Amino acid sequence: MxxxxxxxxxxxxxxxxxxxxxxxxxxxxxAERWSMRIQPGQIRALAAMSVLLVAALTYALVALTPxxxxxxxxxxxxxTRAMQEEAMHTADSLSQVLAxxxxxxxxxxxxxxGKLPAGALKTIADVAPNPNTPAPTLSPQSGEALExxxxxxxxxxxxxxxxxxxxDESGLWIPPVDGRISAPWNPGIDxxxxxxxxxxxxxxxxxxxxxVIFSGFTAGGGHTVLIQHPGDRISVYMHNSRxxxxxxDRVRQGEMVAVIGDSGDHSTGPxxxxxxxxxxxxxxxxxxxxxx
Length: 292
What we know:
Blueprint: E1 2-5, E2 20-25, E3 32-38, H1 40-63, H2 68-71, H3 78-112, H4 120-125, H5 140-159, E4 180-183, E5 193-197, E6 203-205, E7 210-218, E8 222-229, E9 233-243, E10 250-251, E11 256-260, E12 272-278, E13 281-283
Antiparallel strand pairs: 1-2, 2-3, 4-5, 5-12, 6-11, 7-8, 7-10, 8-9, 9-11, 9-12, 12-13
C-alpha cells in the first residue's frame, strides 16, 4: 500500500486543500489494482466516525447485556434491586405492625394503671398508629359515654341467662387460685375485678387456654399477667410475687402463670386481683368464672 501525490496537486496550497490518492499495487509487478482519491478532511472524518462507532458498540454491549453486571464495578443487578425493594416493603410493614402493637400495649398499661377509663382500650387500639400524633386523651364526656355503655353491657349480661355470654359459660373457666373473695367487683369505685385471698406462695393458674399478651411490672398492679383467650376475652392477674410466663407464651387451662403476692402500689396485703375483659369492656369475673 503506498501513498503518493497526484501530478496536478498544488504544492504551494494549504494542507487541507491538497488531494491524495490511495493506491493498492500488486507486489512484484507494481500493477495498480485499486485506488481512491482522498483528502485530509475525509481521513479525519473517517477516524472520528470509527471512534464513535466503536464507542457506541461498546456502550451497547455493556449497557444492554448481562455483561454490565461483571464489567461495571458496583453495579447492582436487577434481581438484587427487586430483593432490596421487597425487603424495604417488608421492613416498612413490620415497623407499622410493631408500632401498632406498641401503641396497644401502652394503652393497655394506661388502662391497668388507671390513667384511662375502662373501655378506652378497644377504641384507641382500633386507630392506626402515627408516630407524629401524641397519645390520645379522652374528654370527660367521652369517659361518661363509655361508662354508660359498659354499664348497659353488664346489665344485659347479668339478665341474659340463656345467651352465649351469660352464666352458662361459667363452667368453661376455672378459678385462678384456690381461695375466697375478699373484695367483690365494684365499678363505682373503679374496682374492675375481684380480690381473692389464698395461702402464701399459692400458684396462680390460667383460667383457660390462651396466649400471654403482657408479662411485666406496673406501678399499680405490680407483677401483672394478661392472657388473651378466644372470643376477644382477656384475663388479668395482678399483685403477684413473681411471674412464671413471658409475653407470647401459649398457656393451657390450669397452667401456673404466677405466684400470689403483694406487689404494686394498690395492694394492701398478699392477694390476687383478678379481672375479666370482653371486647375491651371489663365485666364482673363471677359472671364467667366460678369463684365460690
